[in-house]
Amino acid sequence: MYKATVIISIYRDVDALKLILQALETQTESNFEIIVSEDGESEAVASYIDPITSENRFQHITQQDIGFRKNRALNRAILAARSDILIFIDGDCIPHPGFIEAHLRSTSLGFAWNLGQASLRKFATNNFLPGRLITSLDIYVK
Predict the structure, then answer these.
(1) What average pLDDT does the segment 67-77 reach?
(2) Is the pTM of this model over 0.85?
(3) Residue 58, beta-bridge partner list
(4) pLDDT of 35 over the 80 cut
(5) Which of these, 61, 104, 108, 135, is most buried using a 10 Å CB contact count?
(6) Would you place residue 113 in the very low, low, confident or very high pLDDT band (cuts 50, 70, 90)?
(7) Which residues in 47-141 belong to E strands, given as ranges?
(8) Residues 95, 21: contact at Cβ < 8 Å?
(9) What span, in angstroms and rounded, lies between the C-alpha atoms of 60 and 77?
(10) Residue 127: what pLDDT?
C-alpha cells in the first residue's frame, strides 16, 4: 500500500503537467501513487500520460468535457485512490522536493496542512522549459 496518493487536477495543460510530474520524481519520499484527475478528455494529455499509466503507481481519470466539473473529477479520483492520505495539487502548482514528506510528517502528528508549492502563472510557465526543473526553495513564491 502506498503512503499517500497525490491527486493532480488538470485541464488540458500538458506542459504544466510535465513540470509537476518532474517535480514529483524529485521528492524525498517516493512511496506514493499519482492520479491525474482531468476535467475533460484532452487527446494531448492522453497521448502524454497514457504510456506512463502502464506503471502501477499512475492513474489517469477523465470525464466528458461538458463544462466546469472539477470537483466531480476529484471525487472520482478520491474513489480510485489506493491510500488513506490524499494530497491535492492543482494543475498550475509545482511541489517543492520535500512536499510529500512534509505532508506525511504533518499527518503523523495529527494535523492537516496546506503546504507550499510554486504556482505556475502564464509568464512563469513560459519561462520554465520542460526538462529543466529548478528545485531551489528560494524560487517558490506565495
Answers:
(1) 88
(2) no
(3) 34
(4) yes
(5) 61
(6) low
(7) 58-61, 86-90, 93-95, 117-119
(8) no
(9) 9
(10) 52
CA–CA gap between residue 29 and residue 2 (Å, rounded): 11
Cell of residue 70, nine digits: 472539477
Question: b/e map of 69-99 (b: 16 or more CB within 10 Å)?
Answer: ebeebbebbeeebeeebebbbebbbbbbbeb
Amino acid at the residue 136: S
Q: Answer yes or no: are the C-beta atoms of 76 and 48 closer than 8 Å.
A: no
Distance CA 61, CA 39 (A): 9
* Domains of the chain, each with CATH number or no CATH: 4-139 (3.90.550.10)
Q: Do 47 and 71 meet the contact criterion of CB atoms below 8 Å apart?
A: no
CB contact at 8 A, 31 and 103: no
Residue 132 has pLDDT above 80, yes or no: no
Q: Which three cell numbers stand for residue 109?
A: 502528528
Element (H, E) at 94: strand 93-95
Residues present in the chain in total: 142
